[in-house]
Amino acid sequence: MADGTESPEYDPTISVGSATVPVTTDVDELSKIAAKIRQARPPRPCVYLTVQDGTLLEAMEINVIEQEKRTTQTSMGLKDVYTVYLVETRTKDGANKALGEESTSLWRRYSEFELLRNYLLVTYSHVVIPPLPEKRATIMWQQLSTVDNFDSEFIERRRTGLEGFLRRVANHHKLCQDKIFHGFLQDENGWKASVNATGFQAKMKILPGSVNVNKQDSRLKSLNAAFRLKKPDKRFEDLKNYCTNLQSNITALLKLRAKLADRLYGIHKIHGNYGRVFSEWSGIEHEMGDGLQSAGHYMDSYKDYIDDFMAEEELIADQLKEYACFADAVRSVCSKQEMLQYEVEKAEEMLASKTQLRDQLQGTAPTKTFSWRGLSSKVFGPETEQVKETKLRQVKDQIQEAEENVTRTQKEAEEFVEEALKEIDAFKKTKTADLKEIFINFSVLQIKIAKRGITTWTNTKECFEKM
């Protein structure tokens, strides 16, 4: 290279767990590689899922099978239009019957999915909680409303995302054991009361990343903790920077993909004009009529088949969007660690302050140049020994409480960090496998589009040759 450094050698392999597979441009080979990755990694939120030992997903099938638009009358006489989703579960043969009924079917609103995620976010703050699909149809890099929130295609994509969310939770070794989550799947009428009875809402105001809470207060507390830390954990600082870069790269990739998809879609659709012209031309050409008519049909096919490919590409884009949202979930874990570390440092400051006050009362540490206690002694005279002993006992009691508080907060922070790092390591492994498969599937799709275009133009060429 120009700077004298050695350029890295190209390694034409993809690592999948402990195995490596060669990179190839053949669509069939790429499909086989994607299949291998699916088998080698933990399950991801799509229709075809394998399960791991010890999770609810191993014993139960969870599906969001359909959606329905409903309208109710509010107390103010206004109409409330919303969408509900049918959540269906079925206990697999040989599974533990303690999980509940063999099969259940109940309707849930999107707000109930939000309530479940908020509960999990508070209760398992060290876990990277899976994100929900977007509530409103937006282009994530512009934050502008693009389609009707009740658009059938958007609702269907959101249904798929909600199903993926439930399956990710059911496949997590801790989240899947939560009774509130089980109630969400099986208890339609009493579930809201049971989740509210946990009292998790009281903790939401101090937890970043939750939904439908005082976000300004939550962000201010998180920022104050981050900026005031004397001893920030570099591991979590690096993780926050990584999440920012990950989200930025995914957003840029989605933006570029959208531009290319719009252009490709337009190119295919404008080819419909070829079909119209060839068909009209065939009416005035007796010898070339059949060839022109056939070529027109191929051009119409070229115009129409792109719709299915673009729908498939949107699903792949949704999987990338999910990981952009996962970055926020990881940052939420980092913010919780900062707040716990901030509490530790405040507790240590309080202990140091009380210790210094004890030493001053005992006369083993110098007093401040100016203090209210010194001013009071000059005005009202020095304190009696009995008063000093009383204050000293009070301070010693406060020191004991402060020491206990330091021990408690340190233990809580250490346990959180230990559990959080394990969860983040597991998330990274899943993320790497998921992104590999997403990019391979995207490559396979582009190859299919190109091959279909080549086939269409080859057939058109044959039509012209036969004229």
Description:
Helix content is 63%, strand content 10%. α8 (215-228) crosses α12, α9 (234-270) packs antiparallel against α12 (306-362) and α12 (306-362) packs antiparallel against α14. The protein is mainly alpha-helical. Mean pLDDT is 79; it is low at 1-21, 37-52, 139-146 and 213-217. It is built from 14 helices and 7 strands. A hairpin with a 2-residue loop joins β1 and β2 (19-22). The strands form 3 sheets. Strands 3-4-5 form a 3-stranded antiparallel sheet. It has a two-stranded antiparallel sheet with strand order 1-2. The chain has a two-stranded antiparallel ribbon with strand order 6-7. The protein is elongated, with a radius of gyration of 31 Å. The two termini are 55 Å apart.
Give the secondary structure arrangement, pairings included.
Elements: E1 13-16, E2 19-22, H1 27-40, H2 56-59, E3 60-73, E4 79-91, E5 103-109, H3 110-123, E6 138-139, E7 144-145, H4 152-170, H5 179-186, H6 191-196, H7 201-204, H8 215-228, H9 234-270, H10 272-282, H11 289-304, H12 306-362, H13 372-380, H14 385-465
Antiparallel strand pairs: 1-2, 3-4, 4-5, 6-7
